[in-house]
Amino acid sequence: MSKNEQKVTPQIAVERLINCFETANEEINKALGQNIPKEELKARVKLFVGDAFRKCNVDIKNPTKKGLIEAMNLCKINTEKMLGEKAEPIIKKHYAEMQEIIEKLPDEGDEK
To answer: What mean pLDDT do residues 19-27 have?
Structure first.
C-alpha cells in the first residue's frame, strides 16, 4: 500500500472533515467578501463540527462510518441554512470530497 493509498481510519476521516470545512469556509468567506483570520476560522470550524457530532450523538474521537455520515450531513444542512445559495457550489464540491473519504472507511463489523 503506497502512502497515497494509506488506510483511512475514522480519526483520519474526522481530521479531513475538519480540514475540508476549513477550506470550504475560507472559500465561502471570500465569496461573501469577508476576511476572517485563519486562527479564528479554525476555531469556529472546530466548534461547528464538534457541535454537529454532539447533536448526532457521535464520538468525534472514535466515530463509526454511519456516525461520520450523520455528522457530515448535519454540517452540510447547517451550512446551507446559514449561508444560502451563494455557498451551494462550494458546499457541493467539498461534500463530494468528504463522501469519497468516508466511502474508503470499512463498514461497521468489516475491519478488513
So the answer is: 86
How many residues can be counted in the chain?
112
The CA–CA distances, whole Å, from 55 to 25, 75, 88 equal: 21, 10, 23
pLDDT tens digits along 54-88: 999 999 999 999 999 999 999 888 888 887 777 78
Q: Which residues contact 98 (CB under 8 A, 6 or more apart)?
A: 16, 17, 20, 72
Query: How far apart (Å, rounded) are the C-alpha atoms in residues 59 and 103?
Result: 19
Between 29 and 58, the higher pLDDT residue: 58
Phi, psi of 16 (to 5 degrees): -70, -35
> Contact at 8 Å (CB) between 32 and 86?
yes
In one-letter notation, the amino acid at residue 18 is I
